[in-house]
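Let's practice the habit of predicting before peeking. Look at the sequence and jot down your guess about where helices and strands might fall. Then scroll down.
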Amino acid sequence: MRPLLRTLPEGTELWRCHQHTYGPESFNPNRAHPYFGGSRFDATEQDPYPFLYAALDPVTALCEVLLRSVDYEDRTAVRLIPWAQASRYRLSVLRTTRELSLIELSTAEGLAAVWQDSWLVDSESGDYPKTRYWVRLMREHTAEAHGLVWESKRCRPRSALQLFGDRCGDGPLVTDTASSLPLDSPEGLAEANRLLNPLRAVISSPWPD
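Done guessing? Here is the structure:
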């Protein structure tokens, strides 16, 4: 296995939708169960490392967190995101402090280089134990990789990514605090809904119009 790599230059802007209880630059130290729960590329006890999911634009960052398994309403053909869910999150802007190399999974060539096809990035949650196993293989064969990048299933053709906290060194990211968008505020909700509107998705509001 010889994975292809994509370079993120120093100063690249990343967007992250994360819970208020975690800092924008905080890597997730938790391990997913080998067979149940977790997300597509979470670390496990078999290969424990802190990780961070992000995107290269704000819409994708929102979609990756808020539009998982959200169906269109029959009457309105709109995807409704409950306020109780969205209000736990904020949208933060980060910038890389150094050049990072990510395993390329957003092209047919990149997937073929890791002996896979679109199943790796498009499969449903029932296959996540297998996709997490594949991250172990890719990491074993690519010691120089700082993370992964793939085409977002929920916001094609834009990119989602994961960083490996054990390989990025100290302080790989800095936060643009002025651009933080808390989704539990009227201003944050309005901006998030503006971004989601072209995708026919809306966060319900607790405030009267």
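How did you do? Helices lie at 58-66, 83-86, 108-113, 119-122, 128-141, 186-196.
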